[in-house]
Amino acid sequence: MHQHFELVRRLRVWQNIMLGREPRKGMLVDVDGARSRVAELAERNGLAIDPDALVEELPIGVQQRVELLRELEREPSVLLLDEPTAALAPAEIATLFATVVQLAKRGTAILVVTHKLQEVIDYTTRVSVMRHGKIVARYLTTETSTDEIARAMVGGELPQVAQREATGTQPCLSVRDLSAGVDTTTVSDLSFEVSAGEIVGIAGVEGNGQTALADAIAGMIPYTGAIELDGSADALKHRENIGIVPQDRHHEGLVLNWSIVENAILGRQNLPGIRKGALTNWAAARADAEAIIERFDVRAASADVAVRTLSGGNQQKLLVGRALLGDPRFVLAYQPTRGIDVGAAALVQSRLIEARNRGSAILLISFELDEILALADRVLVMFRGKITGSFSGADIDRGKIGRLMAGLT
Amino acid sequence: MKVVLRVLAGPAGALLLAFVLAAVAMLIAGVSPLDGFGALFSGSLGGRRPIAETLVQTTALLFPALGVSLAFRAGLFNIGAEGQLLMGGLFAGAVGAHFAGPGWLVIPVLLLLGMVGGGIWGGIAGWLRARFNASEIISTLMLNFIALSLAGYLVAGPLKSPLASGAETAPLLPSGWLPAFPTIGSLSFGDTRLTISILIAIATAAVLSFIFTRTVFGYELRAAGEAPEAARRSGINMPRMTLIALALSGAVAGLGGAAIVTGVLHRFNTALSPGYGYTAIAVALVGDLNPLWVCVAAFGFGILEAGGLAMQANAGVPKDAIHVIEGLIVLVLAARRYFATRATGAPV
Question: Which residues from B are below 8 Å from A251, CB to CB?
Fold first, then answer.
C-alpha cells in the first residue's frame, strides 16, 4: 500500500478493488460477482464500505480503506504499508491498525514504514531503524521506547527543542469572516487572531481547507472577508513583514536547479538591500545564504551547489531559514517538518519557537497532531473548512482535539 | 563503453557524431566526404571573403537565436522568431524607404523600428497567453504565416517600389546603410557584405547575459521559467512576465530583421530570411540558452550556412545536405541527455 493513494478517482469502489483482476463472464466483466466479492471481502475484514460509491466522493479515511481492501483482495502473505496513516485522523488510525493487527494474528507478515514513533510502539512487534539507506538498529518493541528509537534515527542525542518564553499578547494577524477556495478545499466564515509572540496551531486532517486558508493568507487565491496584519490589509503584501513556508518545497518553495544563494532571495528579490536599482545585490544574497546555512545547519559543500543535490531535510531547513530571515512580523508555516528526519525536524521546531520568543506571530498548519501539541500556544481544530474547536494553555486536550479532527463532537 | 558515452554526452562529441553521420550520408549519395567537407570548410573559413560571408550568416542567425533563448529561459516556447524577424525587417524597410537624414539618426531609428515590429509580433502571442492562456507554441507558429502573408501582400501592393520589377520596397537611402565592418590592420571588409551588425549582435548577447545574471528582472524571468509555481508564490506577476518576455524576445528577433535590411539587403522583401528564425531555435538550444554560448553556436551554424553554398558549387553536394547536417546536430544534442544518463546514471 503506497503512501500516496493509487486509486482511480473516477471509478467506483468495487472497480478500484478488482482493477486488473476482474472476474469475467465470457467477454464481459462479471459485475455482480465482482460486487459481491468486494462486499464479502469488506465484511470478512470488518471494514465497512459501499462497493458502489465513487472513490472521489469518499473521505480520505475511507479511501485509505479502499486501498487496503484492494491489497487484501490478493490475499497476500506479506503486506507492505508505506506511511499508511499520513492522511488519517487519530480515530481512523486506530481503526486501520485494529484491522492490520487482526491480519497479523491470522498469519500475514506485515511491514510498516512510518515516521510516527508512537504507532511503532503501539502496534508493532519488532522495529528496525533506517538511516542513510542502512539499518542501524533493531529492537523488540516491548524492550524499547520512542526515545531510544529517536536517538537511533538521529545517530546521537536529540537536540533540545527551545524553551518558550513569556511574550506579549499584542494582536498581529487577524482573519475575519474569511471564505475562500473551490470545490472540496474551501474555508468559510473563518475568524481568528494570531498575536505577536504566539504560535497558533491549526490541527486537522489533510484536505479540510488548510490549503485554501494558507493560499488566501499568501495572497495566492481570491477570498472574501478580511485578512489584516497589524490592522492593515496592505501590510500583508509587503514581503518584509511576512515569512512563508509553503507546503510543497519542490514546487512552491524552491527552484531546484538553482544554487542556495539564488534560492535564498526567492520571494525577497525586491526587498531593499537585495534590490539595488535594477540590479540584484548578490553580495547581500550570499550573506543571507551563509546566514541561513549557519543558523539552520544546512549541510552543503558550499552556498553555490544546486539545491537539487541537497537532502530533503536540508532543503526544508533552507526553506524555513529563508522564511524566518529578518524576523518577520508574521510567519505562515505549512507543514514545516514534512518528510524530514527527526533531527532536522527538532531544529526547525526550535527555530520556530525562537522566532516566537523574539515576537513573531506564527500560524502553524500541520497534519501531525504531535507537532501542533509540541509547538502551539493555542490550537484551532479545522474540519470541513470550519474551525470546530479552540484550545489554549491547560485546556489543550489531545483526546478532544482528535475527536474534533475526525468530525466527532 | 562508459568512456564513449561520456564523450558523446559532451557538445564536442555530439558535433563529431553528427559529422560522422553526415559523412555516411555523403557516401550514400556517392560523394567523397573528404571533398564534401573540404568544400564546406574552404567555402566558409578559407579566406577573407568566405569568413566575411560566414559572419554575415552568423549575424542573421544570432539575433533570432538570442530572442528565442530569452523566451525559452522564461519557460516560453517561442517558435515564432521567423515572423518576428520578418516584421522587424518590414517596419525598418517600410520607413527606411522614405526616411532621409543623417546616418547617426536614421540607423538607430530603423533598428529601433525593427525592435518595435518584432516586439509587437511577439507581444501579440504574449498577450494571448497572458490573457486567454492560449499556447504560445501554436500562436507564435501561426503568427509566422500571418507575418509572411502580410509582408508579401504589402511589398507586392501598398509598399511596392514603382521602380523595382519584383515585390520589394524602395531601397534605403545610403545614409540608412549600416557601415562596413571596420578595417583590422591590412584586413579590409569594404568589398564584402559584412557590416558592424555582427558587433551589434554580440553586444546584444552581452546585454542579455547581464540582464539574466545581474538584474532583478532577469532573476524573476529565470525563476518564471525554472519553477513557475515557486515564482508565482515569490510575488512575480506571471501574466505580466509572460507578456514582457515574449515581447522582448520578439524585439530581439525583430532587431535582427532590421539589421538585415540596413546591413545586407538595403530594402525589404520576403526573401529576407531563408528560415533563419527556425534554424535559430536549434542555435539557441545548441548554445544551451546561454547568450555567450549562443554566439559560439551561431558561428558554427554560420559556417554550415555559408559553406553549404560552396559545397554545392564545388563538390556537387546539394545545399540541402547542410540542413541534413544541422538536423543531425540537433538530434544528436537532444540525445545527449540519453547518453549522459547511460554514462553516469543521472540526467544532465
Answer: 227, 229-230
